[in-house]
Amino acid sequence: MPKTFTLNEIVRHLGGELLGDPKVRIRQVAPLQTAIAGEISFLAQQRYIEQLQSTHASAVILGKGAQDATTLPRIVCDNPYAYYAGVVGLLNPPFKPDPGIHRSAVVADGAHIAQSSSVGPSAVIEAGASIGENCVIGAGSYVGRDTVIGSGTELHANVTIYHGCRIGDRCTVHSGAVIGADGFGNAKDGDVWRKIPQIGGVVIGDDVEIGANTTIDRGALDDTTIGNGVKLDNQIQIAHNVTVGDNTAIAACAGIAGSAKIGKNCTLGGASMIYGHISIADNINVSAGTLIMKSLDEPGGYTGVYPFASHQRWLKTASHLRQLDDLFKRVRVLESNKDKNGNQTS
Amino acid sequence: MPKTFTLNEIVRHLGGELLGDPKVRIRQVAPLQTAIAGEISFLAQQRYIEQLQSTHASAVILGKGAQDATTLPRIVCDNPYAYYAGVVGLLNPPFKPDPGIHRSAVVADGAHIAQSSSVGPSAVIEAGASIGENCVIGAGSYVGRDTVIGSGTELHANVTIYHGCRIGDRCTVHSGAVIGADGFGNAKDGDVWRKIPQIGGVVIGDDVEIGANTTIDRGALDDTTIGNGVKLDNQIQIAHNVTVGDNTAIAACAGIAGSAKIGKNCTLGGASMIYGHISIADNINVSAGTLIMKSLDEPGGYTGVYPFASHQRWLKTASHLRQLDDLFKRVRVLESNKDKNGNQTS
Amino acid sequence: MPKTFTLNEIVRHLGGELLGDPKVRIRQVAPLQTAIAGEISFLAQQRYIEQLQSTHASAVILGKGAQDATTLPRIVCDNPYAYYAGVVGLLNPPFKPDPGIHRSAVVADGAHIAQSSSVGPSAVIEAGASIGENCVIGAGSYVGRDTVIGSGTELHANVTIYHGCRIGDRCTVHSGAVIGADGFGNAKDGDVWRKIPQIGGVVIGDDVEIGANTTIDRGALDDTTIGNGVKLDNQIQIAHNVTVGDNTAIAACAGIAGSAKIGKNCTLGGASMIYGHISIADNINVSAGTLIMKSLDEPGGYTGVYPFASHQRWLKTASHLRQLDDLFKRVRVLESNKDKNGNQTS
Predict the structure, then answer these.
(1) What pLDDT score was predicted for residue B3?
(2) Which of A214, B87, C62, C209 could form a disulfide with C66 if both were Cys (CB 3.0 to 4.6 A apart)?
(3) Angle, helix C324-340 to helix A324-340, in steps of 10 degrees
(4) Which of B112, B174, B240, B277 is catalytic?
(5) Across residues A324-328, what is the average pLDDT?
């Protein structure tokens, strides 16, 4: 049975100002367009305001400017989107397995696991590893030698963390993520590559979320470090010795090459790529699909994407792009002829 | 021992018109250039037609237009490439483990597994999950609480499916795929991100193939949905609340951002990227490496790729591209000077 | 306790010329800027030469040209970067688990595992598989039927190798890598896709490193092949029937489409993409983020990346790029008007 809350109870938990019947009982959260009786909805962007007229929600969450836009029972708050996140969490508390180590898990001698934590079926914890209080180690997950995991952290099923890494408190790591694999370090020696052993680790702060199949490599000599509150989507690649600053959020399929430094409060769009050995300042937003090749000092948005077109039109534009050098030369000729003829150029 | 078939038996199973000796025995399928005696080959594209003269295959599969292009024993059919697929399947029936639950698998109380299905070593099936008839759950795979898997579906080794998802009949999911991880939903609250619990699921139709290390996130409030007959290659990222229409095929490394709607019978090329909250109509083909930022209503092909060149030449073109605004201004000046001098512009 | 070596011992193991006190004892390797007493550092690039003056390292590794740039105890050699790799390896020998099969591993009857090899917890080795001498099969890893692994090869935790593949000697495969999943082969049959069973395998040479979550698909009819000494970073996708030549190195997030042939001694940058059915000659360097659509015969560097800019500036340039066809026409008009007016074009 999912829990239900009255509007009054919701406001008692999460704050905000309640307008309308405090006894309305809420069962779930839903978008304005699909909400039904017993559900609460929210208005986070002005452009959806007309949906308030037609919604079947029993109540809505609104910003202060929109509090008169409906007569429905409503919660008025500063940040309706964050409030909505809170209500979803209140109504849908996360599933938590009972503490304890599953009989099929393999915990090496000398590993420490807090009594309040759970280790799922077929999970493996190597010697010297330490799992803090209230952690969940998912089925099939692997925690390498001497790796330390803080309290309240969850590894979903089939996560891999190599030896000698540190994960903070209240982190969530999704399935298939790999933390601490060797950085890609090879020295050319004649025709062959000599592997450079990667002896650094990975240090991850508190309140970090790491998406499915994301990879974070261990450092060559020093550590790879991920700050507090960083949010990483799926299939992100973070190379050795990268630093990611606090509260930076990175969308899926992005890649950060070795030793790059990403500042705080940045956003990197999906499939964006950052060169190695460069620095991205705080408060920088890189658009999806953009490759950043040079350090960025100025906050703001940066983009580098070839604008798509119909294939036929692209063929023509791409061909012109290849002739751009020629075009510059032709314009120069036109300009110099003009000069010779006594015409003025502005 | 692999099975062998005479041409007559093949035609009896798969149809088509047989020309030449029906008793020729076929052991395997091979390309025209490398086929040897006992093997059948196929001509699916006109440009390989001269290879018919030199092939050592014992028989060939041809379209109707090419039926006189060789005197070899041959099967004439409407779609030689699809026919070839059928013959490969006939000669190479998939390996199927015996039904039953491996002693090292962990099946929670209250999970339902059909007797005809098999659960491999170290696999984990959580409470409330249901596995239909004739399924194969690979070694180390994980099926979360209350997830329902149809009949005839195979999860290869080390697949992860979170709780509350639905997978249809006759699907194939390759190793490392993760279905149902949390969508990337965070609400900014001052400097920090508040996680938006993802309470939707993932619903996958029938006859879907999902490649290795592909990730499909669960919905925020509603479900992420993948239609019937969809084919997904490796390392694809499908974000929360995406819809993919029936029979759409997506090549490796593509990404689809949150709430995008992809139509039916589309193809998305490798490493193509689709913005969130846009709609792609049916029958659209997106080229490899292309980022689509706006909804597409018209069927057809779309491309947006920077044409590569030698690095030296690229340096020059890229530099010109940055000066394009200036070039437009210079041409405008030339045009206006011309106007002032009484010249006509077309 | 980590091992320590005197400079004299290091030179005895790895060669090079020692200048200064041979008894200086070295505990670890560190960058010039952060090294402390007891550590050795290295100068691999001329641009860091001034750091020699301020380093606190107890010794340094230098090339012949720089041997007089410091009075610190130093090892002079031809290739300081490769030498550094050797010293790191000497001081940090890899951890090797004891030989033997963990009680929780599942080894099928008819699998062969050399006595000197180890099979970790919850690993699964299927029938007919063969594991050579001194291998390490990590926890939760899966080796399919009839797959053959050479000697001295390590699979880290949670690696998946399908049936019928061959991995050479001294390879390293990182967690989450999937080798031998089905290639993406589908034949259109009306509206639906017919799967083309993938009956080739994957053949991987000696001394190959395969990064975390990298995928290498099995061939359709023939094998996918990776040469000796190839180095693959994380999250690379290699499609069916690709060939990668010896000593080629590929950075993270790159993708190679079906049947492409990559030569020897190439480098492919991060997130570069190679079309299917094309050939890349030996000694070619593809830049990060570049999509190669045509075969390349000439050695050298190739690039195709849209140069990023501030978002505002990009909006303008991208808009101009779309108008490029028009600009070419306008320049042509200017040129022809000029001709008509008797002006000379160079």
Answers:
(1) 83
(2) C62
(3) 30
(4) B240
(5) 93
Per-residue tokens: C279: 């050939």
- Cα B186 to Cα A231: distance, rounded to the nearest angstrom: 8
> pLDDT tier at C345 (50, 70, 90 boundaries)?
very low
- pLDDT of res. C346: 43
Instruction: Report pLDDT digits (tens) over A148-160.
Output: 999 999 999 999 9
Q: Which residue has the tokens 């090419």?
A: B66
Confidence of residue A100 (pLDDT cuts 50, 70, 90): very high
Catalytic site residue from A240, A277, A311, A320? A240
Residue pair A327/B327 in contact (Cβ under 8 Å)? The answer is yes
Q: Residue A249 and residue B186: Cβ atoms within 8 Å? A: yes
Contacts of residue C35, defined as CB under 8 A and 6 or more positions apart, other chains included, come to: C41, C55, C56, C57, C58
Degrees, nearest 5: CA angle A228-A122-B159? 75
- In this complex, the residue of C121, C122, C235 whose CB is nearest that of residue A235 is C235
Closest alpha carbon to C154 in C96, C229, C223, C76: C96
The whole-number pLDDT of residue A172 equals 98
Examine residue A345 and state whether it is found in any structural domain, yes or no. no
pLDDT band at A344 (very low <50, low <70, confident <90, very high): very low
Q: Which domain holds residue C326?
A: 311-340
B79 touches chain A (CB under 8 A): no
Average pLDDT over residues B138-156: 98
Q: Are B289 and B305 in contact (CB under 8 A)?
A: yes
* Confidence at residue A343, expressed as pLDDT on a 0 to 100 scale: 52
A112 tagged catalytic: no
> Both C177 and C240 in a single domain?
yes
pLDDT tens digits for range B272-282: 999 999 999 99
Residue C251: closest CA among chain A residues belongs to which residue? A184
- SS3 category, A83: helix
Residues C83, C137 within the same domain: no
- H helix or E strand, kind and range, residue C338: helix C324-340
Residue A130 placed within a domain: yes
Q: Which two tokens stand for residue A102?
A: 């599953």
Number of domains in chain B: 3
In a shared domain, residues C110 and C258: yes
Burial class (CB in 10 A: 0-12, 13-18, 19+), B96: exposed
The answer to the question of residue B193 being in a domain is yes
**B157, B264: one domain:** yes
Mean pLDDT of B181-208: 97
Query: SS3 breakdown of chain B: % helix, strand, coil, rounded to 5?
Result: 15, 30, 55
Q: What is the pLDDT of residue A342?
A: 53
* Residue A44: predicted pLDDT: 86
* pLDDT tens-place string over residues A199-215: 999 999 999 999 999 99
Q: Which residues contact A41 (CB under 8 A, 6 or more apart)?
A: A29, A30, A31, A32, A35, A55, A57, A59, A60, A61
Active-site residue (options: C112, C156, C174, C240): C240
The domain spanning residue C223 has which CATH number?
2.160.10.10
Rounded CA-CA distance B227/C7 in Å is 65
Q: CA–CA separation, C269 vs C262, rounded Å? A: 13
* Contact B293/A at CB under 8 A: yes
Q: Could you tell me the two tokens for C304?
A: 């195709």
Chain B residues near residue A92 by CB distance under 8 angstroms? 197, 199
* C-alpha span between C39 and C297 (Å, rounded): 46
If asked whether residues B66 and B125 sit together in one domain, one would say no
Per-residue pLDDT band at B344 (split at 50, 70, 90): very low
Domain with residue C49: its CATH number is: 3.40.1390.10
User: What's at C271, amino acid-wise?
Assistant: A
The answer on B249 and B171 residing in a single domain is yes
Rounded distance between C-alpha atoms, residue C335 and residue C346, angstroms: 11
CA distance C172 to C175: 10
Closest CA to A180 of A212, A213, A146, A224: A224
Q: Are residues A136 and A112 in the same domain?
A: yes
